[in-house]
Amino acid sequence: MRIASRLRLISAATLAALLLMVPVVAGSLLAFRRAKSEYLLANAVKVNFLERNSARDQYFLHREERAKRQWFLHLDEGDALLLKAGALFREEGDAGTIEELRLLLKENASIFQRIVANTGALQRAGGNREILEELDKRLYSQMLLKAATYNGLAANLERGTGARVEEAYRRLAIIIGLFASTLAVVTSLAATHLARLIRRRLEPLHAGVRRVADGDLDFRFGAGPMDEFGELAGSIDAMTDKLQASTRELERETARRIKAVAAREGEARFRAWFDLPLIGICITSPEKGWLEVNDHLCDMLGYGREELKGRSWADLTHPGDLAADQVRFEQVMRGELEGYALEKRFLKKDGGILEAELAVRCVRTPGGGVDYFVALILDITERRQAEAQRQVLSAQLQQTQKMESLGSLAGGVAHDMNNVLGAILGLATAHLEVQPPESPAHQAFDTITRAAVRGRELVKSLLAFARRSLAEDTELDVNAVLMDNVRILERTTLSRVQLELALAPALRPMRGDPGALAHAFMNLCVNAVDAMPQGGTLALRTRNVGDAWIEVQVEDTGAGMAPEVLEKALDPFFTTKGVGKGTGLGLSLVYSTVKAHRGVLELKSWPGQGTLVAMRFPACEAAPAPSAASGASAARPGQGTLQVLLVDDDELIQTSTGILLGILGHGIAAARSGEEALALLESSSPDVVILDMNMPGLGGAGTLPLLRALRPDVPVLLATGRVDQTALDLVEAWPRVTLMSKPFSMEELQERLGALSASDVPQAGA
Q1: Which residues of 187-206 are buried (b: 16+ CB within 10 A; e: fewer)?
Q2: d(CA 706, CA 574)
Q3: 91: which of 20, 99, 587, 639 is 20 to 30 A away, CA to CA?
Q4: Which of 3.40.50.2000, 2.60.40.10, 3.30.450.20, 3.30.70.660 is the CATH number of 269-379?
Q5: Do you find a cis peptide bond into 366, omega within 30 degrees of 0?
Q6: Start-end of CATH 3.30.450.20 domains in the chain
Q7: 135 backbone dihedrals φ, ψ, rounded to 5°
Q8: Of 324, 384, 306, which Cα lies nearest the Cα of 360?
């Protein structure tokens, strides 16, 4: 059977199994959804009961009209829920329970009406007030008894529907598991069978082709299975037959022509053999002149036969290769060699260069002198181009490996550096708050704060090498980012150059990290200004490209770059600036930022004319404007002291953060590892946990699930100096978890603690 037929048969069988399983899976899914709907309705009945009881108790305590209206509102809602349940529930016993609940609801309504009427009588009571009060208490007791019965029935209904949900879910999971397992087994068996079949048929085919390639033209595959491989083997046999016949014919023709040449002594030397349009063939004299050439060589060099005969082969040899060829030629003339082979370049008539492999053999006279030379010339230009392309790809691979190595180094350094900067920034901002604004101490701490913030930005830039996803992914307007850069540059360096802006008015938005893009654009603008010390023009342009891209161009009219400099411009730490004037990270950071945004960077430069950097980014559709309600701020915690559990293995962070929390009026407990923190949580209940991502042992990622198992409701601030996909996944997977970037100042810490919802952080003394 043919392999294609086997594939179709296996595919049909697999599809049939899939179609047979679909109704079973669909039925189980519908049963699960129905059970879930019943459970949700039973839960709603239970919640309505609790809300009605709350309104009843409020009315009994305060006799307010609002509580009475709420009770009757919940009564109508409960009656509607029971009507809906009566139509939906089909299990035996559920209908009776729902009917009992409806009777109890009506009885509660009647008793509550009597309580309401008695309330009016109490308000108008005179001497018989004690009797009315006793009646009121008895009515309330009756309602409590009815409510207890109602609660029990509602709880039984909720438990029953919950059990059905669990049973339907288990059944659905088992069916899906069986379906997936069956499909996986069938696919695996089919793939294994086909792989073995193809390998069994391919191995002898490969061995036979190697024998033919090695020169065994007598080899034949012979008859075999009539499948695709059998047809291929037959085609190879037919090709081998033709090749063998052609080779024998060529051998016979060559022998005949050689004999004819020998008989006529040169006038018809190898004429038919020369005319084969496969390779350039020529006969040259000991004086380096062309005696005879074939048409293919003329086509290769661009000269006619007579033009070549008027020149020597040395005239058409590239000057750089002439010396090597001359040495071999003289060795043959002296009798040291009979022939030689080398790669050389010929000069074509149109000024181009022919890359060729040259094989030379001499024919000697009876006296031992050289009569003439026979040379074969093979065009290897395409091979050289392929080798050059391979070298370019190899250089690109080395560039990528260097960038990845540097990214790994930056990621490793960032954690410890952020901890050091965190201690400096936190304590500096704390002291800055308490110093008089004009005092020397305030100025000193302000300088320390700005230096720490600058270090934080540098670490953030270095992390661009290690980051595989963006620290921030928002919709942004590239024109706005560029204009922010222009406003900064206008106050600093743009006075030396002329600025030209050509920003597309209807530029499509994109998604990305505005800070990283602003830093990249600023690097390019500063480089452009540095390249124009005597003045010039800096052009910033944006435009839409096609339906899915936008382009940003930064062009200057500065000194430009030579080709050898342009080739290394994107390499990390490569710079043409003097010692102490450049890090060599500017363009490589720009390149990594563009790649992180799934973009393409093109760098062009012309010595003495300027440089053009073109960056293309994928565009996105503009999101609708947020509604006014979306701007509402989250509730802030109370002013009481919070008990904070700080989990960080770095002593500097523990000390500095502990001081900041103390200044802010919060209590603190510290742990150096996730294991130590979990031990503390077994005996204490903090209001907030600050959890470091990078620690020995469990680390932040391993600690968070265990922490949630012990304290499901405690808010967690996940502190990290490197916002990667792991951290983002943790925030999305667990509730009440918020990211906090390291290093952070006291103001940022206070803002994060203040942004927690009042429902998440208990008030002091609560």
Answers
A1: eeebeeeeeeeeeebeeebe
A2: 47
A3: 20
A4: 3.30.450.20
A5: no
A6: 269-379
A7: -60, -40
A8: 324
- pLDDT tens-digit series, residues 403-448: 566 656 666 666 667 777 777 877 778 777 777 887 777 777 777 8
Q: CATH assignment of 3-188, given 1.20.120, 1.20.1440, 1.25.40, 3.30.420? A: 1.20.120
Where is pLDDT greater, at 635 or 672? 672
Distances (CA, A) of 550 to 481, 503, 511, 625: 14, 11, 11, 22
Q: What distance in Å separates the CA atoms of residue 56 and residue 78, rounded to the nearest whole number? A: 14
**CA–CA distance, 445 with 424 (Å, rounded to integer):** 10
pLDDT digit string, tens, across residues 271-318: 666 676 778 988 899 998 888 888 888 999 999 888 888 888 889 899
Question: Sorting pLDDT into bands at 50, 70 and 90, what band is 50?
Answer: confident
* Helix/strand/coil (H/E/C) assignment for every residue in 617-651: EEECCCCCCCCHHHHCCCCCCCCCCCEEEEECCCH
Going by pLDDT thresholds of 50, 70 and 90, the confidence category of residue 261 is low
159/171 Cα distance (integer angstroms): 18
Domain with CATH 3.30.565.10 in the chain: 467-618
CA atoms of 52 and 73, how far apart (whole Å): 9
End-to-end CA distance of the chain: 79
CATH-assigned architecture of domain 467-618: 2-Layer Sandwich (3.30)
Q: Closest by alpha carbon to 557, among 577, 539, 575, 569?
A: 539
The second-level CATH assignment, the architecture, of 640-754 is 3-Layer(aba) Sandwich (3.40)
Per-residue pLDDT of 583-624, as tens digits, reads 445 577 788 888 888 899 998 999 989 999 999 999 987 655
